[in-house]
Each structure stands twice: as C-alpha cells, then as structure tokens.
Inverse folding.
C-alpha cells in the first residue's frame, strides 16, 4: 500500500479522464496498480515526451508479497502491460472508430539508477494531460483493492459520484462487461454477478470510503441494466488552490441539475452536513444506510418531530414493509415508500386531516388514524421483531 502523505497537496492523486475510464482492458490487480502509478507519474511529470520515469523501489512498494518484489517480476509485469490491449471507441467525422492500443508502448531500464522509463501511446498521453472531465482517484484507496474488477468499478463510480450525496446511476450490462474487461467471460449473468459484480461491490464498500448498493432492471426475464445507488464519502475536491482542479465528474447532467463550481460544492457540502445533523428521523433502524441518506435529502424540508408528519412517516414505512415483506426500507422499495409518503403529505396539505388507511397489520378493520404516533411506533417495531425473530 502506498504510504500516506502528511501534506495534502502532495497526495498521490490520479486524475483519471472520462475517456480512460470508459476503456476496456484486463490485467491483475497488482499489474493495474503499477499501471496506475505510471499514469500518475506521467501526469505529474507532464514532460511532453510521452513517457514517465519510475523508480524500482517505488514499484516494489506496490506489491504486497515480499517474495514478488523482484526486478525480474517487475520487468515481467511491465512486459504484460506492453502486450495488453486498451480498447475504446470514438466518433470521427460521423464515423464510429474502434481503437486498440497497448497500455504502454515500451520501456527502458537504467541499471545504474534503478529507474524505468515507461513510454505511452500519444493518444493515451493526451488523455492524461489534456483532460477536462475526470474521476479523482487516490492511489492509497486503489491499492487497498485485491480485485482488478473493484479497481475499475470504483473508477467508474467515482466519475459519477458526489461527495456525501446519494447519486443513482444506471449502466447497461454490456457497458459494465466492457469496462470491466469481461465481454467474453462469464457469459451467464448469474456468474458475472457472483464472480465480478458482487465481489467488486463488497470490496468497494469495505475499502473504498463509499457505500454502494444495486438494483437489477429487467427487460422481460433478462437483467438488462444495473441501477447503482452511490454514497461517496471521499472528497472530490482535494486542494484549496487551483492545482488539479478542472471540472470533475461527467459533462452530462444528473437529474437535469447543473454542476456547481468547486467553491459552491464546498459550501453546499458544509451546509448539507449541518442540515442533516439537525434533521430528525424517527425509526432510523428501519432504513438502510443508503436509503436513510436518500430520505434525508428528499424530505429535508419536513419536521418529523411534529406528531402529524411523524405519523404519516410511520404509516408509509408500515405500508412499504408490508408490501415487500422486508425488515427495513431497502433501495428496491425506497421509491414506493417515497411516493407513498409524498402522497400522504400532499393529501394532508389539501384536506388538513390525516386520511384513514386500512392495513393488514394486526386487525384488518383497524385504521392508522386510530393510533397515536407513539402507538404506531410500538406497532411498527413489534411487527418487525415478530417477523424476523
């Protein structure tokens, strides 16, 4: 693992351009660490020579197994990088162009200085130097992943994530297979999910300072795309000055909301922290971490300490849990829960009364409006306790 830096402006941070994130290749996690380090060094040197210089000892630190930290093994890794295809598509004058380059084009080893000179293709170098849209990748985090698939999926999610804000983003299965380099592996979806997707998400949640959950979107009986719910706790803007500070994330707009400036981002994050801290949520345990954040963002303007709103919330939770027979509000049921609560609040604002809604809980003839908020809370907790004892 790369040693941590005390100086914030000297952090090992790779600005991975959107174009490079959307490429396809496959190597081992260790080989990819070395590739990342070469990209980072190239970006730092920015010498215009389509190359970078890396020390042997720096590459050795990227390899956890001491027995593999040999010159011969590192030379072999560089040889593999030279032979590995980097595939992507581009549009040129209306034509669709399929591109196939190598991760690196060549290398030279200075025996006296124990330093490698790594050469890159001109197009790869251009994306490293002249980028505008990027995913900021801390090598300290990247080197925690044991799986190549975790590294690549983390890149993709970092491109779209926002700091401490829940983002929902969908990707076609074919797109995920391409980026993760498994177009010709694990042809059955269940194998792809088990061996690639689930393992990558598990590692990202464990080591990536990020919380990720997924929902499968089907076209008929076939899973056609994956909807990711992303809560990223890692910074997107690392520096207070303008160093490494082009536009982050995608040029596209998420939910038709324009991207704020970096200064606005910092201010909004701090304001959001304060408002979330003050926002009262009864029955927190009945949400997952991701859906709790989404609930805070969606209903920030309502005071659930108020008995009327608290009661509407509890009714909506009961309805959603009953519908899906779950112990808490999960990502797949959140939209139903949200719509239920929104309709109740809208109905309340029109009628100024709480509507009577029948439920299958306990006695089918009873209605929610027969209970106080405290009684509803007791029913809610007891019903879940009995169900999942």
């Amino acid at each position: 693992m790369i040693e941590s830096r005390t100086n914030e402006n000297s952090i090992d941070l790779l600005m991975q351009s959107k174009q490079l994130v959307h490429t396809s290749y496959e190597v081992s996690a260790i080989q990819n660490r070395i590739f990342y380090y070469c990209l980072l060094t190239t970006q730092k040197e920015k010498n215009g020579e389509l190359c970078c210089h890396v020390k042997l000892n720096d590459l050795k630190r990227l390899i956890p197994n001491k027995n593999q930290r040999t010159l011969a093994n590192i030379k072999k890794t560089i040889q593999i990088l030279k032979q590995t295809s980097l595939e992507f598509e581009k549009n040129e004058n209306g034509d669709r162009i399929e591109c196939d380059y190598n991760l690196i084009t060549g290398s030279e080893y200075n025996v006296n200085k124990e330093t490698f000179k790594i050469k890159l293709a001109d197009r790869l170098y251009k994306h490293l130097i002249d980028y505008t849209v990027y995913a900021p990748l801390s090598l300290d985090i990247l080197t925690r992943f044991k799986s190549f698939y975790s590294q690549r999926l983390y890149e993709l999610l970092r491109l779209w994530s926002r700091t401490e804000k829940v983002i929902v983003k969908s990707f076609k299965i074919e797109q995920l297979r391409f980026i993760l380099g498994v177009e010709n592996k694990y042809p059955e979806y269940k194998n792809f999910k088990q061996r690639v997707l689930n393992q990558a998400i598990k590692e990202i949640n464990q080591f990536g300072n990020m919380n990720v959950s997924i929902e499968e979107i089907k076209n008929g009986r076939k899973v056609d795309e994956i909807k990711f719910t992303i809560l990223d706790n890692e910074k997107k803007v690392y520096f207070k000055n303008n160093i490494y500070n082009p536009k982050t994330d995608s040029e596209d707009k998420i939910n038709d909301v324009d991207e704020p400036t970096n200064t606005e981002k910092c201010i909004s994050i701090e304001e959001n922290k304060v408002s979330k801290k003050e926002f009262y949520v009864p029955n927190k345990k009945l949400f997952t971490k991701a859906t709790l954040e989404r609930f805070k963002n969606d209903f920030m303007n309502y005071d659930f300490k108020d008995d009327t709103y608290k009661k509407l919330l509890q009714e909506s939770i009961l309805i959603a849990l009953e519908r899906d027979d779950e112990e808490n509000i999960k990502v797949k049921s959140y939209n139903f829960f949200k719509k239920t609560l929104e309709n109740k609040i809208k109905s309340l604002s029109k009628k100024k009364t709480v509507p009577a809604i029948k439920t299958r809980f306990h006695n089918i003839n009873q209605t929610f409006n027969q209970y106080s908020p405290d009684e509803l809370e007791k029913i809610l907790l007891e019903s879940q306790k009995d169900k999942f004892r």
Remarks:
- The radius of gyration is 25 Å.
